[in-house]
Amino acid sequence: MKIHPLRVGRTKVPFGQFYGGLAGADFDEFVTDKDHFIWVPIHAYLLEHPTVGPVLVDTGISPEQTEHVEYYRGSIMEHVMDVDEYDLPADETLTAQLVRLGHKPQDVRAVIITHFHEDHVGGLNLFGHAPVYLGAGEYAAREEKVFGLVPLAYPPSIAAITDWRPIEFTGPAVGGFGGSADLFGDGSVIALPTPGHSPGSTSVLVDHRFLLTGDALYTIRHLAVDDVRAIQVGKEEQYIDSIRRIQWLRRAIPDLLIVPAHDDTEYGVRLTAGLVAGELSEEDLRWAKDWERETFDEAIRLNPARLPHFIPDPDGGPVGRVS
After folding, report:
1. Metallo-beta-lactamase domain location, by residue (predicted)?
2. What are the pLDDT digits (tens) for 200-219?
């Protein structure tokens, strides 16, 4: 099955949000930090399923969300999120990305969302005609208030969807996961529970070759959870447990390629570029595995030379980059 990464803009995030989870920082600190921003890509994925048809995993952001004050007016997100948090060029909208591959939004036969965060469901209203699959835990928590202030699922971003398909993970164990869900009955698209980042976060195993993690892993480096960890607003113990299970899956499937949604590392850039045509070459596969061997040891600890560090903007601006 062909799998196409779709770059749907980028988001500006505090360095500490991605990498401050072992630094003793807390949520308030990274929300108020305006001096250590980085840009990271936002990816959705189009699966060319041979019988179902085009299937999307996540939907990125929408042009409406870039009009920040108007879109989030009356919500706490109007004030907590920066007005320039999202950047979405016209040629990177989800519709433009689908057209590039010969599809219109109405051609999509099903959507799988990894979780309800805004940079993963921003384009969801384009697919009111399609069933939307998501973890049952995520669906059950959709109206729960984050910090007691805003629903997990921002109502305007999901208003068009009527056919929700909550996933129960009652299928066989896979790697470190005690349950799974074969979404289309042919073993090609298997949902796995990776809660922690959100209540019912879900990762998607495609053809037993690619694991689309959503934000269960922000980048491939986060696989080394004892060395690199994101700040958690949910249950950190669940977040860590989910990564441990992904580690076991990687051991069980040696050729597995882990594909996080926001990976700005050399690994993420090359992997998504290699998959533009829908299939990874043997050369790119060898390169990815060599990169992993140079980055992680057998215990999945990170090569100290590849620990992330914030590099300030040389002109003194607030947005830097990661080493």
Report:
1. 41-262
2. 999 999 999 999 999 999 99
Among candidate residues 20, 204, 11, the one with its CA nearest the CA of residue 115: 204
Q: Please give the structure tokens belonging to residue 104.
A: 């219109």
pLDDT score of 31? 65
Q: Which domain holds residue 87?
A: 2-322
- Look at the chain and report how many structural domains it folds into: 1
Q: Where are the alpha helices (DSSP H) in the chain?
A: 15-19, 27-32, 63-66, 68-71, 77-80, 94-100, 118-121, 136-140, 155-158, 236-252, 266-274, 282-295
Dist. CA 53–CA 103, nearest whole Å:
11
- Alpha helices, DSSP H only, in 27-74? 27-32, 63-66, 68-71
Up-side HSE of residue 172: CA atoms within 13 Å toward CB? 5
Taking only the tens place, the pLDDT of each residue in 73-85 is 877 676 667 788 9
- Measured between alpha carbons, how far is 4 from 142 in angstroms, rounded to an integer? 28
What are the backbone dihedrals phi and psi of residue 99, each rounded to the nearest 5 degrees, phi first? -60, -40
What CATH number has the domain bearing residue 287?
Answer: 3.60.15.10
Dihedral of CA atoms 63, 69, 72, 78 in degrees, nearest 10, equals 130
Report pLDDT for 144: 84
Mean pLDDT of 132-158: 89
Q: What is d(CA 5, CA 56) in angstroms, rounded to the nearest whole number?
A: 10
| The pLDDT of residue 294 | 97
**Look-up of token digits 């060898």:** 286
Mean pLDDT of 17-44: 82
